[in-house]
Automatic annotation (TrEMBL):
Originating organism: Olea europaea subsp. europaea
Name of the protein described by the UniProt record: Caffeoylshikimate esterase
UniProt lineage: Eukaryota, Viridiplantae, Streptophyta, Embryophyta, Tracheophyta
Residue ranges annotated for the Serine aminopeptidase S33 domain, each copy included: 130-246
Superkingdom in the source lineage: Eukaryota
GO molecular function: hydrolase activity
């Protein structure tokens, strides 16, 4: 089938353009390509959903719980609740050598967007004076209730109050799992939640330090830059950032970035370490 379209449009053509004798004002002819073979090879995209592997050493009931869709917070909370005891029994140094007597607390706070944000604290043994508060920002795909659990207990045993939240869409907080609609939104949520936490009676008036790992390192830096007078120091572990400072002075224990802050880039956690965060 041929489609014929008579055009009355007459474009302006420079002098001498029609000397070839070609009729540039003939009707446009649009023809269907009757060649059965495509001009370019077609590409097929196959989307496969892989079944979650069975977790060895746990019951079928727990495997059924672990295999559910974890896109939303209620499912993630069910899994965490079912595996809490198993987590504490893992053959890992952070759990096997965790100090005893650390006080913990868990709660939820509604943020300004109406999302339930999971919060947790680790405090030294009763009677131990708290030196300051360390507020943790976890990385992408992480949560404050797994490996950080062991890390927090070790730091709390050194005399610090440790506080952590799950970012919206991660861990036990509400939101689509792993979806970050706005990075600044996560930063603002961190500022909002830790402003509330700083008012807790056990740490009111003490030094406040923000602690970020991986993506949480970038979040911690942005939170510090937005409100520099709200923090007494920052600790970064493998931060998602690039430092470009011509006046950077490097030393063996950290990087002096300004008169107010030293950014400590921690390479690894050392057994029986003594933690002291300073500005």
């Amino acid at each position: 089938m041929d489609l014929v379209l008579d055009s009355t449009f007459r474009p302006f053509l420079p002098p001498g353009f029609l000397t070839s004798g070609r009729n540039h004002y003939r009707p446009f002819i649009l023809q269907r390509n009757l060649d059965p073979k495509p001009k370019y090879p077609r590409q097929s995209v196959i989307v496969m959903v892989q079944k979650k592997p069975k977790i060895e050493g746990v019951s079928d009931e727990l495997n059924l719980i672990a295999s559910q869709n974890l896109d939303h917070a209620p499912a993630r909370r069910r899994v965490r609740s079912a595996f809490t005891n198993i987590q504490q029994q893992l053959d890992h140094i952070l759990f096997k050598m965790a100090p005893a007597g650390i006080r913990t607390d868990e709660w939820y706070e509604k943020n300004s967007k109406g999302q339930e944000i999971f919060c947790k604290s680790w405090l030294p043994k009763p009677g131990v004076r708290i030196k300051g508060a360390l507020c943790f920002c976890h990385g992408y795909g992480d949560t404050c209730t797994f490996f950080f659990e062991g890390i927090a207990k070790h730091i709390a045993a050194s005399g610090y109050g440790i506080y952590a939240i799950d970012h919206p869409g991660f861990g036990l907080s509400e939101g689509l799992h792993g979806y970050v609609p706005s990075f600044d939104g996560i930063v603002d949520n961190v500022i909002e939640q830790y402003t509330i936490i700083k008012g807790r009676p056990e740490i009111r008036g003490l030094p406040y330090f923000i602690f970020g790992q991986s993506m949480g390192g970038a979040i911690a830096l942005k939170a510090l830059l937005k409100e520099p007078r709200q923090w007494d120091g920052i600790v970064l572990v493998a931060p998602m950032c690039k430092v470009i400072l011509p006046s950077l002075l490097c030393c063996s224990c950290g990087w002096f970035v300004s008169d107010r802050y030293r950014i400590l880039i921690a390479i690894s956690w050392i057994q029986n370490m003594k933690v002291d965060v300073w500005s």
